[in-house]
Amino acid sequence: MHTKESLTEDLVHTGILPSDTLLVHSSMKSIGEVDGGADTVLDVLMDYFRESGLLVFPTLTYDLNSSNPVFYVNETPSQTGVLSDLFWRRPGVFRSLHPTHSVAAWGRDAEEFVAGHELFSTPCAKGSPWGKLAERNAKILFIGTGTIACCTFLHGVEEWFGVPGMLTDSRERLLSIDADGIEHVVPSRRHVGSHSRYYGKMRGLFESYGILKHVKFGDAACFLLENARMAGDVVMECLKVDPLLFTHES
Asked: Residue 226: beta bridge partners?
């Protein structure tokens, strides 16, 4: 059985620093049996960044749309796993107000990091928390996800590049209700197509640049993308050659 001490040791061995900004995509089940369960995993991660780092989880809500338009920042469950859903509910964690692509953050400048996400009409705009990951040279840890296909950050890179046909032309009228009960209207364009199923083709290239490595956390085989800014730059160069890179297999 994994303990808080053993998981902390695994985290140290990844090379992640307590001062880093870290985004976590996660599968709790992949970690194996943990003394204290998911709460212990979150304790490990939050304690690690307590002094000077920033811990971020995606708390996406895919099923919000024009027929189901209301996002409650203090109520709507995350659809990106048990750890992310428990994380945003913890004291001191701030969650952004974007109705479909919110993130939750804890640690250094967490409130500032999530602020203003609801002001953008696209899910992963450059000025949103997804763009701030690149500004901070953030690291992205994939705990037991099997691939890097769930890398929402790469949706952002595609947005910033302007991949043809990736976003709807029309805007859905979605609503975000903040912690004070104030309603924010968010006219939102949506991502089109399942581009993420092809993000795995970047794995070899990221490895060749030395920015993707294999690490362990509990029983989980993990990927660690060590520099979001550099990863974004690499993908941008690839999109210049083939703007539709993530719409086909080869």
From this structure: none
